[in-house]
Amino acid sequence: MMWRVVHASFPLLSEYWRTIADIHTLGVVSEVPRWRQCISTLSKSALEVALNSYYVRHYFNEENKEAVLKIAEYIQREFLNILETKEWLDENIKEQIKGKANATTYNIGYQKELVNETIMSQLYSNLILDGKSYFKKTLQLRKWQTDYSFSQLRRNEVEIEWDKYLSPTTVNSAY
Asked: Number of C-alpha atoms within 13 angstroms, CB side, residue 92?
């Protein structure tokens, strides 16, 4: 158990310790720039929601969202048109397929909570990052994330399911 804690902490330490860890675990020294490592760590941490909020506010193009929504609706409409021409499917199966196609929901762009200042402030209200070292700040962030997760356990209703949606910076499709 302790080894897992130590191993997970190596990327947070200075280059000297990261080099030792790389040599012993990988057999080579990895040369990932520190800035890239920091961005990767932040985007996989509890600050992912804050980073997504910043991205949406400053870089997300609303016109593109509308265009992609129209494309998705067009694809669905054409799928239903093509379905009608398939004679080898019986009517019962066609109705089931239509029901499933019509139940499709689109999560294009981002969830509206990301641009709500009040929600963002409430989410991170208990997060305090003091200290000067990256290591200490990361430990504080991990503790906050654990505390937040535990605070959601006994709630009848989860406030917002942030992990239910893809990140706005991720391009993917799912059903």
From this structure: 0
Q: CB within 8 A of 29, min separation 6: which ones? A: 19, 22, 23
- Please check whether residue 46 is in contact with residue 120, taking contact to mean a CB–CB distance below 8 angstroms: no
HEC sequence for 15-65: HHHHHHHHHHHCCCCCCCCHHHHHHHHHHCCCCHHHHHHHHHHHHCCHHHH
44 vs 38: CA distance, rounded Å:
10
Put simply, whether the predicted model's pTM sits higher than 0.85 gets the answer: no
b vs e for 13-25, b when ≥16 Cβ sit within 10 Å of the residue's Cβ? Answer: eeeeebeebbeee
Smallest CA-to-CA distance from 37 within 127, 138, 130, 170 is with: 138
How far is the CA of 60 from the CAs of 11, 43, 114, 169, in angstroms?
Answer: 31, 17, 12, 9
Its sign, for the CA torsion 82, 84, 90, 94, is positive
| Helix residue ranges per DSSP H, the chain | 2-9, 15-25, 34-43, 48-59, 62-85, 91-102, 117-123, 134-151
Q: Is the pLDDT of residue 175 over 60?
A: no
For 9-56, the pLDDT digits (tens) are 777 777 788 888 878 777 777 677 878 877 777 777 788 888 889 988
